[in-house]
Amino acid sequence: MSDAKIETIRSSSGGVLGRAHSVVRGQRLVLDSSSRPQPDALTNSEAFLASISSCGVTLIEMYAQEAGIPVARMAVTIEGVRTAAEPARFSRITMRFEIAGVSQPQAEALVETYRGR
C-alpha cells in the first residue's frame, strides 16, 4: 500500500454564473471566479492565497509546540499581485509573519522552518 495521501474535492456549478460549490469531508465551500467576485464568498485567488497563509499559521504553530517553543499567537498576512496584462498569474506574492511570545531569532527560525517544508 502506498504512503500517498489522496485528497479529493468535488466542485460543481450551482446555477450562478462564476460561482462553484466545493465539497470535501462533508464541508461545503462556495467560491467565486476572481473575475466575478461577490460579497458573500471568497474568490478562487483569495482562497488560494488563504490556503498558503493558513498553512503558514498551522505548520508553525504545530512545529513550535512539538519543539517546545512558546508561541502565544500568530498571524500571517499574504498579498498577491496580478497584472492586468496577465490576470491569471501572480506576478508577486509576499507574506508577513507576526509571531508573539518568542524572541526575534526564534521567530526567524520558525519562518525558515516553514520556508523549508
Radius of gyration, Cα only, in angstroms? 18 Å
CATH topology: GMP Synthetase, Chain A, domain 3
What pattern of helices and strands is seen along the backbone? EEEEHEEH
Beta-strand share of residues = 25-35%
User: Which strand order spans the largest sheet, edge to edge or round the barrel?
Assistant: 1-2-3-4
The average pLDDT score comes to: 95
Architecture overview:
This protein is of the alpha+beta class. It is 31% helix and 31% strand. The chain contains 2 helices and 6 strands, in the order ββββαββα. The strands form 2 sheets. The protein has a 4-stranded mixed beta sheet with strand order 1-2-3-4. It has a two-stranded antiparallel ribbon with strand order 5-6. A hairpin with a 2-residue loop joins β2 (19-24) and β3 (27-32). It is globular and about 50 Å long. The mean pLDDT is 95.
Summarize the topology.
Elements: E1 10-13, E2 19-24, E3 27-32, E4 42-43, H1 44-67, E5 73-81, E6 92-100, H2 104-115
Helix pairs in contact: 1-2
